[in-house]
Specification:
This is VOC family protein. InterPro entries: Glyas_Bleomycin-R_OHBP_Dase, Glyas_Fos-R_dOase_dom, VOC_core. This protein is α/β, with parallel strands linked by helices. The chain has one domain: 2,3-Dihydroxybiphenyl 1,2-Dioxygenase, domain 1 (Roll), CATH 3.10.180.10. 17% of the residues lie in helices and 33% in strands. It has 2 helices and 8 strands; from the N terminus they run βαββββαβββ. The protein is globular and about 40 Å long.
Length: 126
Protein backbone atom coordinates (compact mmCIF):
# COMPACT_ATOMS: atom_id res chain seq x y z
CA UNK A 1 0.00 0.00 0.00
CA UNK A 2 1.01 3.64 0.28
CA UNK A 3 4.32 4.17 2.06
CA UNK A 4 3.76 7.62 3.57
CA UNK A 5 7.31 7.98 4.83
CA UNK A 6 8.58 7.69 1.24
CA UNK A 7 6.29 10.26 -0.42
CA UNK A 8 8.17 13.02 -2.24
CA UNK A 9 7.43 15.92 -4.50
CA UNK A 10 8.97 16.62 -7.91
CA UNK A 11 8.96 19.21 -10.66
CA UNK A 12 10.88 19.84 -13.86
CA UNK A 13 13.62 22.25 -14.83
CA UNK A 14 14.82 23.32 -18.22
CA UNK A 15 18.50 23.10 -17.21
CA UNK A 16 19.41 21.03 -14.14
CA UNK A 17 23.00 22.33 -14.08
CA UNK A 18 21.59 25.84 -13.65
CA UNK A 19 19.04 24.55 -11.13
CA UNK A 20 21.77 22.75 -9.18
CA UNK A 21 23.78 25.97 -8.82
CA UNK A 22 20.69 27.98 -7.83
CA UNK A 23 19.30 25.59 -5.22
CA UNK A 24 22.74 24.77 -3.75
CA UNK A 25 24.57 28.10 -3.91
CA UNK A 26 21.85 30.73 -3.92
CA UNK A 27 19.30 29.06 -1.62
CA UNK A 28 21.86 27.05 0.34
CA UNK A 29 19.95 23.77 0.17
CA UNK A 30 21.47 20.29 0.27
CA UNK A 31 21.36 19.14 -3.36
CA UNK A 32 22.68 15.94 -4.95
CA UNK A 33 23.04 15.35 -8.68
CA UNK A 34 22.24 11.82 -9.77
CA UNK A 35 21.88 9.77 -12.90
CA UNK A 36 20.35 11.40 -15.97
CA UNK A 37 20.93 14.87 -14.36
CA UNK A 38 18.16 14.34 -11.82
CA UNK A 39 18.58 16.53 -8.72
CA UNK A 40 17.55 15.57 -5.21
CA UNK A 41 17.01 18.28 -2.62
CA UNK A 42 17.34 16.76 0.85
CA UNK A 43 14.88 18.37 3.25
CA UNK A 44 15.03 16.51 6.57
CA UNK A 45 14.71 13.02 7.98
CA UNK A 46 14.68 11.41 4.54
CA UNK A 47 12.23 13.84 2.94
CA UNK A 48 13.21 15.03 -0.51
CA UNK A 49 12.20 16.95 -3.59
CA UNK A 50 13.23 15.72 -7.03
CA UNK A 51 14.00 18.08 -9.92
CA UNK A 52 14.21 16.37 -13.27
CA UNK A 53 15.34 17.74 -16.65
CA UNK A 54 12.68 18.35 -19.27
CA UNK A 55 13.52 19.84 -22.66
CA UNK A 56 10.00 21.13 -23.28
CA UNK A 57 9.70 22.41 -19.69
CA UNK A 58 6.81 24.77 -19.03
CA UNK A 59 7.06 26.64 -15.72
CA UNK A 60 4.39 25.94 -13.14
CA UNK A 61 1.84 28.72 -12.72
CA UNK A 62 1.62 27.94 -9.02
CA UNK A 63 4.05 27.68 -6.11
CA UNK A 64 6.11 24.49 -6.37
CA UNK A 65 8.04 24.93 -3.11
CA UNK A 66 7.42 26.80 0.15
CA UNK A 67 10.45 27.65 2.27
CA UNK A 68 9.74 28.58 5.90
CA UNK A 69 11.85 31.43 7.32
CA UNK A 70 11.98 33.01 10.77
CA UNK A 71 12.41 36.59 9.47
CA UNK A 72 11.11 37.22 5.97
CA UNK A 73 12.64 40.69 5.71
CA UNK A 74 16.12 39.32 6.40
CA UNK A 75 15.61 36.38 4.02
CA UNK A 76 14.38 38.64 1.20
CA UNK A 77 17.32 41.01 1.74
CA UNK A 78 19.84 38.14 1.74
CA UNK A 79 18.43 36.58 -1.44
CA UNK A 80 18.12 39.96 -3.18
CA UNK A 81 21.85 40.49 -2.57
CA UNK A 82 22.41 37.15 -4.37
CA UNK A 83 20.47 38.37 -7.41
CA UNK A 84 17.04 36.90 -6.67
CA UNK A 85 14.21 39.11 -7.95
CA UNK A 86 10.98 38.91 -5.98
CA UNK A 87 7.65 38.89 -7.77
CA UNK A 88 5.23 41.77 -7.44
CA UNK A 89 1.50 41.18 -7.08
CA UNK A 90 -1.31 43.71 -6.94
CA UNK A 91 -4.50 41.66 -6.84
CA UNK A 92 -7.59 41.80 -4.65
CA UNK A 93 -6.29 39.05 -2.36
CA UNK A 94 -2.49 39.45 -2.73
CA UNK A 95 -0.59 42.73 -2.64
CA UNK A 96 3.16 42.89 -2.23
CA UNK A 97 5.21 45.80 -0.95
CA UNK A 98 8.24 47.25 -2.74
CA UNK A 99 10.38 44.33 -1.49
CA UNK A 100 7.92 41.77 -2.89
CA UNK A 101 6.51 40.79 0.51
CA UNK A 102 2.78 40.18 1.01
CA UNK A 103 1.88 41.14 4.56
CA UNK A 104 -1.61 39.77 5.02
CA UNK A 105 -3.47 40.44 8.23
CA UNK A 106 -5.55 37.28 7.74
CA UNK A 107 -2.86 34.96 6.45
CA UNK A 108 0.85 34.23 6.41
CA UNK A 109 3.51 36.71 5.34
CA UNK A 110 4.92 35.53 2.00
CA UNK A 111 7.34 36.52 -0.75
CA UNK A 112 7.55 34.78 -4.12
CA UNK A 113 10.38 34.43 -6.63
CA UNK A 114 11.28 32.09 -9.47
CA UNK A 115 14.11 29.65 -10.01
CA UNK A 116 16.15 29.74 -13.26
CA UNK A 117 13.42 27.67 -15.00
CA UNK A 118 10.74 30.16 -13.86
CA UNK A 119 9.14 27.77 -11.33
CA UNK A 120 7.55 29.76 -8.48
CA UNK A 121 8.99 29.43 -4.98
CA UNK A 122 7.69 31.12 -1.83
CA UNK A 123 9.28 32.22 1.39
CA UNK A 124 6.78 31.98 4.23
CA UNK A 125 7.36 33.49 7.62
CA UNK A 126 6.58 31.11 10.44
Amino acid sequence: MIQREKIFSSFSAEDTDEAYFFYKNVLGLEVDKGEMSVLTIRINEGMKIIIYPKQDHVPATFTVMNIPVTDIDDAVEELTKKGVVFLQYDMAYIKTDSKGIARNEHGPTLAWFTDPSKNIIALIQE
